[in-house]
Amino acid sequence: MKLKKSYWVKFIVAATIAVTVSLNISCTSNKIAVPIPGQGDAVQKNIYIEYLNIADIYFELEKYSKAETYYKAAMGNKEIYWTAYYKLAKCYAYESKWADAQTVYETLLKRDPQNNSIQASLGYIYAMNGNTEKAGQIYEKLIEENPDQADYLENYILILLGAEKKEEAQAAYNSLVEKFPASKRVEEFKKQFEKEEPAEENNEENKQPENSSPAA
User: Fold this and answer.
1) Mean pLDDT of the chain
2) For residue 8, what pLDDT band results from cuts at 50, 70 and 90?
3) Rounded Cα distance, 87 and 215, in Å
């Protein structure tokens, strides 16, 4: 019978505590046998790896706050620092901590400026932070460099709609229909544009000339 993930979390946490206690005893007691050279470093490294494993399990359980704590702990080991840092960024995004997520993803992009996935994530985060201008610029670049990627164009349309740039959104939508007619988002966007058109027409009809007065 397979144990639930929550049991594995408890097991790994207990194992980590046991290793930590063992390490502390070996460092503070003179009665323990002389340790093997390098053994302490190996044990210490294993602790950080266990932190990373615990964080991954919490992340899969969608307990992002706890995962965040253990990813930060895992960053104490320089060998797995960037792996933990990247996963920490994902936690921030899932927790809607957009300011923290932006800081981390900007750092990641500086290390790997050609990484499309990081660029796309940062563009999304900029949009969620209200910086639709920067978000749009990132996706314009992604679309230009990756003309066969429908999802970049789809996300760009969402950003334009969120920024209420309807004409630009319509132009991008037309491009989506032309290049990717099989996209699942085509119908979704079509309905959204059709829904907005009657509302705009009603607004125009309800407008009255500035100097006119209602009929008696």
Assistant:
1) 81
2) very low
3) 65
- The pTM is what? 0.69
Helix (H, G, I), strand (E, B) or coil at 77: coil
Per-residue exposure over 49-78, b if at least 16 CB sit within 10 Å of its own CB, e if not: ebbbbbbbbbbeeebbebbbbbbebbbebe
CATH topology of domain 1-95: Methane Monooxygenase Hydroxylase; Chain G, domain 1 (1.20.58)
CA angle 73, 76, 78 (to 5 degrees): 140
Say if CB 68 and CB 41 are below 8 A apart.
no
Nearest-CA neighbor of 160 among 145, 182, 175?
175
> Tens digits of per-residue pLDDT, 103-115?
999 999 999 999 9
Q: How far apart are CA 98 and CA 6, in angstroms?
A: 28
CATH topology of domain 96-204: 1.25.40
**How far is it, in rounded angstroms, from Cα 85 to Cα 91?**
10
Burial (0-12, 13-18, 19+ Cβ within 10 Å), 103 = middle
What is the Cα–Cα distance from 77 to 53, expressed in whole angstroms? 13
**Domain spans, the chain:** 1-95, 96-204
Give dist(CA 16, CA 190) in Å, integer: 54
Q: What is the pLDDT of residues 47-88, one digit of tens each?
A: 999 999 999 999 999 999 999 999 999 999 999 999 999 999
